Amino acid sequence: MVRGHTRGSRERGQKRGAVIDLGRNEHGIELRELSERIHSCRADELDYYRSILDLSRAQRAAIVEGDTDALARATEEKTRLMSVIDAIGLKIASLMDETACIAGARSHACVHRDHVATTAATSAVPAAGCGLNARIVGVMAGILEAECANQELLEQAISGVSEELKQIDAGGKAVRAYWGRGGQPTSTTGAIDDNA
């Protein structure tokens, strides 16, 4: 009789252990799915940042060529893409919060299988970031560099226009000064003979 009781306890213990493992496996599956979704969002984010970099380069060409329409179109498209990236960022934050609820605070580190395999193979990649994050940072650095160059070109263009406006203004003042000293206007529209 004691023997049967022991066997039943062991079976119940095994079932409890199986339930605990099942719970862990379910969380593992959920975490993997969330990780895949976060990774997919990061990949989309990277693509949009690359598009913004291309648009920044197109803006440079538009500035150099003086094509204000192309400059405006590129600026509008960049603004639209930044809105999309902002929405992706909110989605990623939501997914990371969901991951944190399941796995705990350390879940904010990248747990995508590609990153975990890379980190296990080499210690060159920091534990809190994955390859996509590094690529996004690289593209963002390129965008910043392109934007600084574009700003410099725009400042030069504005300075050039300012100088042209000063020259036009100076030319107008010279003509008015000439007329003020008794010079005759070259236009004949004002020369109507009132005695006729």
**Any low-confidence stretches, pLDDT <50, length ≥5?**
15-23, 118-128
- Secondary structure: helix percent: over 70%
Write down the overall mean pLDDT: 76
CATH architecture assignment name? Up-down Bundle
Radius of gyration: 34 Å
End-to-end separation in angstroms reads 143 Å
Q: What's the tally of helices?
A: 4
**CATH fold name:** Methane Monooxygenase Hydroxylase, Chain G, domain 1
Strand content: under 5%
Number of strands: 0
Biggest sheet statistics: none
The CATH class assignment is Mainly Alpha
Instruction: Note the overall shape.
Output: rod-shaped
**How many domains comprise the coordinates?**
1
Give the ordered list of helices and strands: HHHH
Question: Which structural category do the helix and sheet elements fall into?
Answer: mainly alpha
Task: Briefly say what this structure is.
The chain is mainly α and 196 residues long. It has helices at residues 2-65, 68-103, 113-121, 131-180. It has one domain: Methane Monooxygenase Hydroxylase, Chain G, domain 1, CATH 1.20.58.
